[in-house]
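User: Run a structure prediction on this.
Assistant: Running it now.
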Amino acid sequence: MQFKVPQFIDIEDKVFGPLTFKQFAYLAGGAGFGYLSFHFLPTIIALVVGPAFAAFAAALAFMKYNDKPFIHVVESFIKFYSHSRLYLWHKKPAAASAPTELHSLVSIDRGTMNESKLKTLSWSLDVIDPKK
């Protein structure tokens, strides 16, 4: 029995012509805020604010930064400036048991080394040429 495996599951469906629902919502919201700014604000201020809303809506709808939607950049910007950024480093004291364990290992190794092992080790060091 064969089943159809969905392809392109990361691509959104085009709902309104060439636009996805999110793109349409961003553009409609930008157009709405632009209209409200021209309707309720003085003309001089509306000439600055209205196109700013339209440009922001167009950026949300179409712009990608590092292959991610622009809304992720806006979200990261808001999170960065809304949270505190105080980073403190506290040095933790070294564990007291570590030097004693190392000291006990060295003393154990020193106690098991006899003369024949020492001669074998010395011979192997003399035979190996470090320049090769």
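The mean pLDDT is 81.
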